[in-house]
Structures are given as C-alpha cells and as structure tokens.
Design a protein that fits this description.
Layout lengths: L11 H28 L4 H6 L6 H32 L8 H12 L4 E5 L1 H11 L6 E5 L6 H10 L5 H10 L4 H8 L13 H13 L2 H11 L5 E4 L6 E6 L4 E3 L1 H4 L6 E7 L7 H9 L2 E4 L4 H9 L4 H7 L3 E5 L14 H11 L9 E5 L28 E5 L2 E2 L2 E5 L1 H19 L10
Parallel strand pairs: 1-2, 1-7, 2-3, 7-8, 8-9, 9-10
Antiparallel strand pairs: 4-5, 4-6, 11-12
C-alpha cells in the first residue's frame, strides 16, 4: 500500500475524498442515532450492545478503529474483485497494486526516442518499455527484402516489417497475440513467406486510408507502450557507394557487396522527414541511436532531410549504442571509432552529437562458426578527448553473442540518463521496480 501513497500515483487525492465522504456520512448517522437515543426508550440489552459500560471517549475510539479496519478490508477486496478481470489477463502475475504502481512509474519515465531498424531496434525497445511508456521508435523505410519487399512492390505501401517488430516489442498483450503477429506462412500460393502482422498492417492501411493511421490503429490493438514512426513517408530506395566505385541499389543487396561501403544515400534524393519524427526528437529527454545494422538500419534514418539536423539541434541526452559484433558485408573489421566516424560523415562532418557511446565490455563469448563475425573491440572506459565519452557495460546476450540483452541494455541507458540528470539536478530516479 505504501507504493500507492508515493507522489505521482494519483491515488491519494481519491483516498482523501473517500475519507471526507466517510466522515461526513458517519457524522450524519451519529446525529440521527443521537437524536433517536435521546427521545426513544431502549431495553437494557441495548446498553450492553452499544458498550455503555465503557467510557464514552474509549468507546468512540474503539468504534473508529473497527470501522476503519472493516472499511479498508472491504475496499481492498472490492477493488481486487473488480480489477481482477483486467489485471489478470495481461500475461503476468502482478498484483493490482504492483500493476498500478508500474503503470504510473512508467508514465513518469523519460521521453526516449530510439532511431534504427531491424532486430536491434526491437531489442532496445523491448527492454526500455519496462522503464517508461514515453517511447518513440523512428524506423527506416528502406527495407526491400522478404515479405516487406514483396508487399512494397506489389501494393506500393511502406515496408511493414520493421514497424511490426517494433510494435510487437512494445506490445502489452498475451504471448498468443504476439506469436500471431509474428507468424509466418510457410505454404500457400502468394502467402508463403509473408508474416501475418505484415498482412494485418497492410489491410489496416487499406481500411484506414493511409499507412500512418494503420500503424496508429494497429498499435492500439496491440496495446503498444509508446509510438512507432517512419523516418520519412516517401517511397525511397537505399543505395550504397563502395570503395570499389561500385553503386549498389536496394537494402537487401548492400550487404552482399564485395567492397567496403563508403557511404549510403536515398533515392529519390533528399526525401523530407516525417514531421512527427522531428517533433519527437525535439521534445525528447534521451535520443538513442542503434543498435542495428550500421549502413542498412541506422544511417538510412540519419540521411533523411531534416532528421540529422533535428538530432544535432535537440537538447536531449544523446547515446550511440554500438553493436556488440561486426556485420559481414557492412562493418567487417570495424571498431567503435569506425562506427562513429561513419555516422559523423553521413551527418555532414559536423560536430559530434553524442554525449555517450555505450559499448559492450564482455568479450570472449562464442561467436558463429563461420568466423566472419567478430566482437567489436572496445575503447578505454571513460575515454576523454574531442569525441564522445565511451562507456563500457556488459550488455551482450549470453545466449546470442551477436546481439544485445534487452534488459541489460535498457538498464545501462536509463542509468546513464539518471546519472546525467542527477549531475545537472533536473530529474530524480525513476525507481528500480522491474
């Protein structure tokens, strides 16, 4: 019960109102009973039942104690009975109080914007949603492979795959609904290879009239904590220029190039940013770049006109989450500095926007047998200089050494924000309740 009495729970005011109503009602009954007691004769047994043999003050205190005890027990049980139908169906075993407490704490959490795409983005979101509900995912729309690519070519819609993954990661639904959205058909003419979630989003875009509204309504179906936005609403193709003077078109083809990537860009050139994404960046408390494929998930967002400038101009704390492992065809042999240099190059060689670079400190986990994937070597913890401060934390997934652990990554990001806010005196800790 002490959780409910903490600031910001929006419970104390209603408890106080109930208490005032209870006192007023009790006083009214007391006046009525006093009047009846004075004007009506009662048998001797009534005096025993009303404890007339005890001093009046002690008698009043005794009745108040018993009354409050029965009142609070009844109120607690009533709330549990009424809310059980809602709380009991959220896929966990939290009590009513813990559910309300977690909900309120997340509502007061920092406004975090995560920029990226692919699996890395959904991994970060899955962990962060336990700390705050004020989440925004800004997703690349350059995906042209698999189910998303086919739907994009056949129906002219934005690729739904990354949006689906982000919504599932932020969803507060039963595992069955999550499995349904991620279900991929393995047979059927025209259906094989498509995921149900992709088809659902495309169907919703037809029903609602546009893709943005479809994401909005689909998020409501999945009870998404936060919002998922496209970096641009334009139909774009990701292109890469390699060190071998080769030009590669299409996200799915870039990683297969035999040359080192020099830069990526979008065609048609200079697509406008989604205004909602710009607004989210300017209002954010924390902006997280990555994790995810550097050239095919992260950078396609930053080369969108206006998005890179909004990143630079935002007053939010900016954190770059470096991948825990290199990616064949994209970042072979890359260290932390190489990742940062690539981002700065695509931002026009401007000043470094990042306050921190969050990198993995735990090396030595077993990598894929192919031998092409290597851990990204860390720089010195707390390194100083003109670049951002590199912070090393154990954020790797022990069962999959090429990916981050959702909970560890989220905890590290939130801790950086807490520490920075405490130093500036602008924010208090959001609490460790997960």
């Amino acid at each position: 019960m002490m959780k409910l009495l903490q600031p910001g729970m929006r419970v104390k005011r209603w408890v106080a109102l109930i208490f005032v109503g209870l006192v007023a009602t009790s006083l009214g009954f007391a006046y009525i009973l006093t009047h009846i007691y004075r004007v009506q004769p009662f048998p001797e047994v009534a005096g025993v039942l009303t404890l007339q043999f005890i001093d009046r003050l002690e008698r009043g205190i005794l009745f108040v104690v018993f009354g409050l005890f029965f009142f609070f027990i009844g109120l607690l049980r009533l709330n549990q009975s009424m809310l059980a139908a809602f709380v009991g169906n959220n896929g966990n075993n939290k009590s009513v109080v813990d559910t309300i407490y977690s909900y309120r704490v997340r509502q007061r959490g920092p406004r975090i914007v995560v920029i990226g795409g692919g699996t890395g983005l959904s991994v970060a979101l899955r962990g962060l949603k336990t700390h705050t509900s004020n989440l925004t995912a800004i997703v690349t729309v350059a995906d042209d492979g698999g189910s998303s690519g086919r739907l994009r070519r056949d129906l002219g819609v934005l690729p739904p795959g990354d949006f689906r993954n982000c919504m599932v990661a932020l969803a507060d639904v039963e595992p069955l609904m999550e499995n349904l959205f991620q279900y991929r058909f393995n047979q059927g003419s025209g259906l094989e290879g498509h995921s149900f979630g992709n088809l659902f989003i495309v169907a919703m875009s037809e029903v609602t009239g546009n893709f943005e509204r479809a994401i909005e309504e689909s998020s409501r179906v999945l009870a998404v904590r936060g919002q998922v936005l496209a970096s641009t609403l334009a139909d774009v193709t990701l292109c890469a220029e390699t060190e071998g003077a080769e030009t590669v078109q299409g996200e799915s083809s870039i990683s297969a190039s035999s040359y080192r990537i020099r830069r990526v860009y979008l065609e048609p050139g200079d697509p406008p940013a989604n205004p909602a994404a710009i607004k989210a960046l300017m209002e954010a408390d924390v902006i997280v770049i990555g994790p995810g494929s550097l050239y095919t998930s992260v950078l396609p967002n930053l080369v969108v006109r206006g998005l890179g400038k909004a990143l630079m101009d935002s007053s939010a704390l900016k954190i770059y989450v470096c991948n825990v492992a290199t990616q064949p065809g994209e970042t072979d042999g890359y260290g932390i500095d190489d990742h940062i240099d690539a981002i700065l190059q695509h931002l026009g060689g401007k000043r470094n926007p990042f306050d921190f670079v969050l990198a993995n400190s735990r090396l030595g986990l077993r990598m894929p047998a192919s031998g092409r994937v290597k851990p990204v070597p860390p720089s010195a913890d707390g390194s100083e200089g003109p670049g951002p401060q590199v912070v090393l934390r154990e954020v790797v997934d022990e069962d999959n050494a090429v990916r981050h652990d959702s909970a560890k990554l989220a905890q590290a990001i939130v801790r950086l924000y807490e520490d920075s806010s405490e130093r500036s005196g602008t924010w208090a800790k959001i609490g460790q309740y997960v």
